[in-house]
Design a protein that fits this description.
Blueprint lengths: L2 E15 L6 E12 L6 E5 L6 E8 L10 E7 L10 H9 L3 E6 L11 H5 L3 H13 L9 E11 L1 H8 L7 H10 L16 H7 L1 H8 L10 E7 L10 H5 L5 E5 L12 H7 L3 E5 L12 E2 L1 H6 L1 H4 L7 H15 L5
Parallel strand pairs: 1-4, 5-6, 5-7, 7-8, 8-9, 9-10
Antiparallel strand pairs: 1-2, 2-6, 3-4, 4-11
Helix pairs in contact: 1-12, 6-7
């Protein structure tokens, strides 16, 4: 097992604009990777000024460990309004086992910057973020020449689950999601934007960047390098996928969800995907396991400020659940999968 290196940076996708239309789309990235045995490690709490969660034991800015062969790669996508670092428990486990894990804080839909309605609406930009980050980092130190592009997989939580399935070629149609959401009596948006649905028409009229994105919602984001994916508690947004595109996906998809998940109800999301993906497996995590058990452990401040996210029901051991999911990930995303 390796010690875990960790570093972050900011890249730009010159092929897309930021939501303000003022420049290229930002790609804030984080990477977890095998580090040398003598790397100095410690627990990292984030965000630095007022830590809300424990990201994991890492060696910041450590070198990449020496190895006889390039390392396999896992692309990592966070949930709605979150950050790649909130999945540090999973990324660290994969890096310790010899993977380079590359996560992106998805522009406008992340806690690392100001929330934008556009980022909460245009989910199909997220898989493009992952592909672009890989394109750019593969040629940069310390990763240049050290990544095996023949062994690329992806993992995502919640909306990140949608993102990684889209990397395999699932096609989005917003009218399908609207029909599903209306039938289930969903509201007009998440807690960050409770009026999100009502913002579409004004944005289409007033934002050229949003309009351009909206018009490509059904363009395939398939990345042929991605050989397998793990979708953790995939979000209701998966109901925007066309059945034809799901049934055409031959690569393996591992699904995991708790039966007590209210944000991404298992029957409507993970079980539905399992029914329509020809090469999918489904792991039920338990009757008491909810959505946020799959996020990093909270600090005392985090539990005080966001008890719904960081305070688990009696009898639920977050570390044990995450250890189980990490073992599942190592199997599902094994080199050569």
């Amino acid at each position: 097992m390796f010690k875990v290196g960790f570093r972050t940076g900011l890249l730009q996708d010159e092929t897309r604009r930021d939501w303000s239309g003022n420049g290229p789309r930002p790609l804030r990235w984080a990477a977890w990777y095998p580090a040398p045995a003598d790397a100095q490690v410690g627990m990292m709490e984030l965000p630095p000024q007022r830590p809300l969660f424990l990201m994991g034991v890492v060696a910041p800015d450590a070198a990449l460990a020496e190895a006889a062969a390039p390392f396999p790669v896992v692309l990592l996508s966070h949930g709605t309004g979150g950050s790649a670092a909130s999945l540090g428990w999973l990324a660290g486990a994969l890096a310790s086992a010899g993977h380079v894990v590359i996560g992106v804080d998805h522009h406008g839909n992340t806690s690392s910057e100001r929330h934008r309605a556009e980022g909460f609406l245009c989910w199909w930009e997220r898989p493009r973020d992952l592909s672009c980050a890989l394109d750019l980092l593969v040629a940069r130190e310390p990763f240049a020449g050290r990544l095996d592009l023949g062994r690329v997989t992806a993992a995502g939580f919640s909306l990140g689950g949608y993102s990684v399935v889209a990397l395999l070629g699932a096609i989005t149609r917003m009218d399908l999601f609207r029909d599903f959401a209306t039938a289930r009596g969903f509201g007009d948006g998440p807690r960050e934007f409770p009026d999100l649905a009502r913002r579409v028409a004004p944005l289409l009229e007033g934002s050229a960047v949003f309009r351009t994105s909206w018009e490509r919602q059904s363009t395939s984001c398939r990345d042929a390098r991605v050989k397998a994916v793990l979708a953790l508690a995939p979000a209701p947004t998966v109901r925007a996928f066309t059945l034809e595109s799901l049934r055409a996906i031959e690569r393996p998809v591992a699904l995991a969800v708790g039966d007590a998940d209210r944000e991404a109800p298992a029957h409507d999301c993970a079980h539905w995907l399992h029914q329509h993906l020809p090469n999918a497996t489904l792991e039920r995590l338990g009757t008491d396991i909810g959505h946020y058990v799959l996020l990093a452990e909270g600090t005392a401040l985090g539990k005080e400020r966001e008890p719904d996210i960081w305070c688990d029901p009696h009898g639920v051991d977050r570390r044990a659940v995450q250890a189980r999911v990490s073992a599942l990930a190592l199997h599902a995303l094994a080199p050569g999968a």
